Amino acid sequence: MLKKLFTPAKIGNCEIPNRLIVPAMVMNLCTEDGMITERYIKYIEEKAKGGWGMVITEDYAVNVNAKGYQFIPGLYEDEQIEGNRRLTETVHKYDTKIFCQMYHPGRQSKHAVNGNVQPLAPSAIKDPFCMDLPREMTVEEIRQIVKDFGSTARRVKESGFDGLEIHAAHGYLISSFLSPFTNKRVDEYGGCFENRTRILDEIYACIRENVGADFPVQVRISANEYLLGGRTEADTYELVRHLDELGVDAIHISNGMYASPVIRQIIAPMYTEHAFNMDTAEQVRKLVSCPVIVTNRINDPKMADTILEMGKADFIGMGRGSLADPHLPEKARKGAFENIRYCIGCLQGCEAGLLAGTCATCLVNPRVGREYENPMEKTDSPKKVMVIGGGPAGLMAAETAARIGHRVTVYEAKNTLGGQFKSAAFPPGKGELSTFVSSLRKNLADMGVPVKLETPVTEELLASETPDAVIVATGAKPLVPPIKGLDGENVVSAEDVLLGNADVRPGPVVVCGGGEVGGETAHFLTQTCQDITLIEMRDDILVDMFPLMKMQLMQYIREAGIKVLTGARVASVDENGVFYTDQEGNTQFVPAATVVSAFGYKAYNPLEEAARKYCGNVQVIGCAVKAGNALTAVREGYEAALAI
Ligand SMILES: Cc1cc2nc3c(=O)[nH]c(=O)nc-3n(C[C@H](O)[C@H](O)[C@H](O)COP(=O)(O)O)c2cc1C
Ligand code: SF4
Questions:
Q1: Which ligand is nearest to the CA of 316?
Q2: Ramachandran region of residue 36, left (φ > 0), alpha (ψ -120 to 50) or beta?
Q3: Which of 20, 26, 300, 548 should be mutated for ligand 1, with most atoms under 8 A from CB?
């Protein structure tokens, strides 16, 4: 079935055992002074165990101030070599290669994380996300940075890495020199192609002086920045011919910078089409003699194999795919596609974690970055565990508990699994959410875990089962505030609309509640309804969403012509529509044939007390404690299983 994915191929003189590459991903797991940690090594080792052909490390700082995140590693001092030797030796116990990515963040950094210095850039233009005004670099500073890349490369080689990647993508320092969007210099480092490329040429030459002609050196670039006056494919084709002439060993095609539009971001969300860099990579491949890696929104091994088979690239970068499931390659090799935990493009664990200044994690894999805490060995004392609730929290608890050897049964009152995660997959662009629940279900089935649907847990059942441990994951129920008319026949819940349990009547629709569920339900309804109004009591809608996703959904809401009323408190509902109080305290009316109730959720925990009567080991998790987001619920499911 898979034709090329598991064939070896070379980058320079380094043979990579298969075509699946983990591209660089900052995890923020190291120390503030750039030393690597056991936690970081264990995180990378898990991928080596999982069968990736190559792991490219996160971006290593080339000097003490070259940091865009607080806890990234560096190789700017000889003391940093020893830890990295342990890392490369660990990875080399497996059939996996490891390259080191080297970078300087340029303007995409802040005083707060880079040792309290003003960020450096080709020109003094602020990045709209970092918002720290950078300083235009002097020629002397440019020459020093070139040397820093060279000496870091020497340490990379001495640390035992199989090769290195120059990070010339994503709006960081080198990339910002390449781009006329950020480089407005008029000296020999700005202006025409030769000048904008000069810093990269000098860095490459200096690296070669330090590592020799045979050490594999590849370059990562953003093929298109999707910005007015930014780099485009035309620039990229010119650049890759130049890099090929220089003799680089591979070219890694990515896209974007921090300032790029949401659906063309470096870490593209679920709204972005899959593998959108593949056609550019194919063109690049025609122009160069070295191998080409392509990355972004490729999360499926069969898709990866097809891209290879079509000749669009030589290697596939799968970043978040490796966070979601470090064992994806091994599962693909065995044909166990249904067992793979696919990245769903939600950004809630990985990018959101980094932007919050903590470490990156993953919504569908709470273990990522925490491998060092627990080897997941089988327990010596298997327990009989009742998991009540088949939503993401309960299923993650059940999967984790079963994996370490407990005897688990899952009880779900409804006739289907997934809880709120099921309906969350219905709005446009969110279909991939289904893969999470589906893979949990399959893994439980393969481990022989009984999943009892349409089985509400009662006190009698708890008494008769006599479990050793109970995990209460009964989730949340829609919140129905005491507003007159909400029990009317024209009122339906957002969840019922999404799941197709309730239809909307012809005519205008009013969605009450402008949080994520309300906003997405309104977006869902644009497929069949013309006249939609979203009413929110706060001053803004979608306040519970991760800002990048919010920006994109806002755009869809605007484009679809959904009317948004903020600062509007729903007062009552009747058969003709919704009365609300506006910001001035006046009562207003919006006509509606159907009113969708999306006021939020409240924790639902009816069984804790009964469970405690019959069992001394009861844990309540996820939305049964506090209606919140899936990231927290899934993490709590994982933690509860380990705490049994
Ligand atoms: C948490 C996280 C950190 C990242 N850090 C880096 C980085 O250090 N260097 C880099 O070149 N790209 C970085 N990226 C971008 C990824 O390498 C990759 O290009 C991006 O995630 C899109 O690919 P994917 O859809 O396979 O995840 C990061 C991505 C994530 C999710
Ligand atoms: S948090 Fe979401 S986007 Fe990030 S790796 Fe996990 S599933 Fe993918």
A1: 1
A2: beta
A3: 26
pLDDT band at 125 (very low <50, low <70, confident <90, very high): very high
3-state secondary structure 362-426: CCCCCCCCCHHHCCCCCCCCCCEEEEECCCHHHHHHHHHHHHCCCEEEEECCCCCCCCHHHHHCC
Residue 283 DSSP code: H
Residues 466-488: pLDDT tens digits? 999 999 999 999 999 999 999 99
Q: What is the pLDDT of residue 387?
A: 98
Ligand 2 atom having least distance to the Cα of 347: 3
Nearest CA to ligand 1 atom 13: 25
Q: Whose CA is nearest to atom 4 of ligand 1?
A: 25
Active-site hit among 43, 76, 172, 342? 172
CA dihedral 291, 295, 301, 304 (to 10 degrees): -50
- Determine the distance separating the centroid of ligand 2 and the alpha carbon of 516, expressed in angstroms: 18
Residue 574 has pLDDT above 90, yes or no: yes
Active site annotation includes 60: no
Residues 58-72: what's their mean pLDDT? 97
Backbone φ and ψ for 252, nearest 5 degrees, come out as -110, 115
* Domains delineated in the chain: 9-339 (3.20.20.70), 376-478+603-642 (3.40.50.720), 491-599 (3.50.50.60)
Q: Which helix (H) or strand (E) holds 152?
A: helix 139-158
d(CA 470, CA 609): 11
Structure tokens at 423: 């309906």
Q: Please give the average per-residue pLDDT across 527-539, as a whole number.
A: 97
| pLDDT of 346 above 90 | yes
CB-CB contact of 479 with 623 (8 Å): no
Q: What is the mean pLDDT of the chain?
A: 97
Angle value at C-alpha 260, between 242 and 349, nearest 5 degrees:
110
- Read off the pTM: 0.97
Ligand 2 pocket test target in 262, 347, 433, 434 with most atoms within 8 Å of CB: 347
CA distance 172 to 191: 18
* Residue 1 in this model has a pLDDT that exceeds 90: no
Q: CA–CA separation, 22 vs 465, rounded Å? A: 45
Per-residue confidence band for 628, with pLDDT thresholds at 50, 70 and 90: confident
DSSP H or E run through 360? none
Say what the pLDDT of residue 302 is.
98
What proportion of the chain, given as a percentage, has pLDDT over 90? 99
So what's the pLDDT on residue 345?
Answer: 98
Pairing mode of beta strands 569-574, 577-581: antiparallel
Closest atom, ligand 2, to C-alpha of 269: 3
